[in-house]
Specification:
Blueprint lengths: L1 E2 L9 H13 L7 E2 L5 H12 L3 E6 L1 H10 L6 E6 L5 H5 L6 H8 L4 E9 L2 E3 L2 E5 H11 L4 H15 L4 E7 L2 E7 L1 E5 L21 E6 L4 H8 L9 E6 L1 E14 L2 E21 L2
Helix pairs in contact: 1-5, 2-3, 6-7
């Protein structure tokens, strides 16, 4: 079990003890690794080589899951997710319940998805990354002292006001080269952000494809439509489904991976890593 002791500001001790009981009842040998500020990937690789685990439980948020996937992608094991971070976009998108006991049953089950991962300039994305307005929103949100949905809503309004101009982008995919003016380009392996907002209705995490969701316009009213589940496909929004793509922006654009701001980028080489990890799912 990989437990991130600081994720979500939640004490993981009760969760670890509950997982230990589940493991004992099922005859598993159980051991825990608590993440630190450094060298987690190297430590996990040493532990995997020593113990050769059949199953790896992950108690944390999206960042902890991604770290585990990076460290253990060569390990032939099943990942069991116990969502307990500040950002739980992947578990939200996969429809995980809120009750610990239910999530433990899922984590120990044999209902498994061979999940794809998206590679972006060599970095891995589990569910949703983007260029443009949302990445700028994440950057602004990280700077605010006001947390929770009120802080998020406030930053949505100010970011929409600040980011009036669109950026130019050339997208090469499926043997075609197309030119766009966009407020935001989403690279989607799944359907929903951690807030529960659906941005990519076509998304599946095991189909060997990802989607580029190009939002050509994005004002407050279009944003309200998206939040209410009415993605305005057509004039305002276009979706390209592919396994490989190259995105070139005219100027450096804010960029985020799975809720983590990653600076600015002008070019992305994007490809799907088919069936990269096995995940126990509802």
């Amino acid at each position: 079990m990989i437990a991130n002791p600081v994720a979500g500001g939640v004490d993981k001790t009760p969760l670890i003890e509950a997982a230990r009981r589940f493991a004992d009842e099922r005859g598993y040998r159980f051991f825990v690794y608590e993440t630190t500020d450094s060298d987690n990937e190297a430590a996990l690789q040493r532990l995997a080589k020593e113990h050769r685990p059949e199953r790896v439980l992950i108690a944390g948020g999206d960042g902890t899951i991604k770290m585990a996937a990076d460290a253990l992608h060569d390990c032939d094991c099943i990942f069991g997710i116990l969502p307990s971070g500040s950002a739980n976009g992947l578990s939200t998108d996969l429809g995980f319940p809120s009750a610990l006991e239910d999530n433990l049953r899922i984590a120990f089950s044999d209902h498994v998805m061979e999940m794809d991962i998206v590679s972006l300039n060599g970095k891995k994305s589990l569910h949703l990354s983007d260029l443009g307005l949302n990445a700028q929103l994440i950057r602004n949100f990280e700077k605010t002292a006001m947390r929770g949905m009120l802080g998020y809503a406030t930053k949505v309004f100010t970011t929409l006001k600040q980011t009036r101009r669109r950026f130019g982008a050339t997208i090469e995919a499926n043997g075609e080269t197309r030119r766009f003016r966009a407020k935001m380009i989403v690279i989607a392996n799944s359907t929903k952000y951690g807030t529960g907002v659906t941005i990519n209705p076509q998304g599946r995490m095991d189909d060997g494809l990802f989607e580029l969701v190009i939002l050509k316009k994005l004002n407050f009213w279009i944003f309200a439509k998206i939040v209410s589940g009415r993605l305005p496909l057509g004039k305002e929004v276009e979706i390209i489904q592919t396994a490989n793509a190259r995105i070139k922006a005219d100027v450096p654009v804010s960029f985020q991976i799975d809720g983590e701001f990653c600076g600015e980028e002008r070019q992305l080489e994007v490809s799907i890593l088919k069936g990269e990890i096995k995940v126990a799912v509802p």
